[in-house]
Write a structure and sequence with these properties.
74 residues, mainly alpha, globular
Length: 74
Amino acid sequence: MDVGVEIQGKVLAIIEGSRDFVKIRTLLDGWQADGIPTGHLVDELTDLMLDLRAQNRADDEDAVAEVLDVLADW
């Protein structure tokens, strides 16, 4: 599976479900530990946010923006 598809899919599943930001943070930490650069994670989450915007899913888009804010502050 393409890593980008996996990142977007797993983050989206949590946002659509529990919105558990601890789970998302754990995923991001794991991907970084596996050697995925922060910049790549930011790119994938930005793409996801833009896709949600195009679908008029403002609440989900805002949730991804919050994740991006946390990622940028690391």
